[in-house]
Amino acid sequence: MTISKRPLFLLLVLLCLYHTNALCQRKSSPLAGKTICLDAGHGGTALTDSYRVGPTGEREEWINLRVALLLQKMLEESGATVLMTRLTDENVPFDDRIQLATENKADVFISVHHNATADTAVNFPIIYYHGNASENKGSIALGKLLAKELSNHLYTEAPPATLVSDHAIFPSAGAKVLRGTYGIPGVIAEASFFTNPAEESRLKDDAHNRKEAQAYVAALEIFFSKPVPGIASKNSIVTLPPFKVFQEAERVDGTALLWHQDYVKGSELMKSKDKQTLQQAYDLLTRSVRSFPDSYLAAQCHLNRAHVLKKLGNRKEANEERRRAKEFYVVLGK
Ligand SMILES: [Zn+2]
């Protein structure tokens, strides 16, 4: 080799080493070879939806898409195949989103969302699974990891993240995308509340969106490094009657704002032995859990309702309430 060709040769050697290293990294990632369906929630509704919008106008559908696109890139770099339900701000029917995951036999289905509520001070992650906790174990394993990683990546003080059944917020049938993809470990993940002004401002920042995407990657890496728990058929272990809760618009009105106050007052009054006071406690606890059925107090609110029902002599309904708390709310470790 002549002296003039040596730098070129060295460059080729370095390039080869770089590519081999990148390939090794892909192969060593637990995400390599996995098919992940990413669903950026909502889309294309700026003219028709005035609910999913932050205090200064940032729309949930825009945030969801930004995070999902960043996450797509990160997952692909780790060797995963990523199925995106949308790539632009467009309205994609639920059935198309479901079909993409089921027809391609996705290993997981993740619907990326952000949350809204009346109380603008509220900000914590909520993860939803479909159906009952004792049946949908694969989704709960994923949900637990996501709750933990989103908390660790995005919040300085450990927030009380919740892992909640979609039946807690959509009582009769749950969320359509989770119902339609049932059998695939799947969640709707809401990392934070865009109704909180400081959070809305953070959510406009690319670095913050990137951090959120990194939390998903961290959770998925752990999820795929262990055996995935099986998912039993729906209602094969337990069935629970629907529990009516406030829906979207009602959840951001004045009464819903009292969710915390109602819980505290109801929990105090339930210590009474007087029937009328107990009935008052029951009404306040019911209104609290209907106003904010996925809050970090909701599971305890159902348990308190069970306590009052038992004191009022309604054992059957009390037992049902306890079962609801167990199936719809998963206790998360610190
Ligand atoms: Zn949403």
Largest sheet: 7 strands, mixed
Number of DSSP strands?
A: 7
- What's the N-to-C terminus distance? 62 Å
What's the shape? globular
Give me the strand/helix succession.
Answer: HEHEHEEHEHEHHHHHHHE
Number of domains: 2
**Distinct small molecules:** zinc ion
Taking strands numbered 1, 2, ... along the chain, how are they ordered across the largest sheet? 2-1-3-6-4-5-7
Per DSSP, the total helix count is 12
Strand content: 5-15%
CATH third-tier fold name of the largest domain:
Aminopeptidase
CATH domain class of the largest domain: Alpha Beta
Structural overview:
With 334 residues, this protein is of the alpha/beta class. The chain has two domains: 33-223, Aminopeptidase (3-Layer(aba) Sandwich), CATH 3.40.630.40; 248-330, Serine Threonine Protein Phosphatase 5, Tetratricopeptide repeat, CATH 1.25.40. Helix content is 48%, strand content 11%. The chain contains twelve helices and seven strands. The chain has helices at 6-28, 60-77, 94-103, 137-154, 176-180, 197-203, 206-223, 248-251, 259-269, 275-291, 298-311, 315-328, and strands at 35-40, 81-84, 108-115, 126-129, 162-165, 186-193, 329-330. A seven-stranded mixed sheet has the order 2-1-3-6-4-5-7, with helices on both faces. Helix 2 links the parallel strand 1 and strand 2. 45% of the residues are buried. The model has no long low-confidence stretch (mean pLDDT 91). The structure holds zinc ion (ZN). Residues 41-42, 60, 113 line the site of zinc ion.
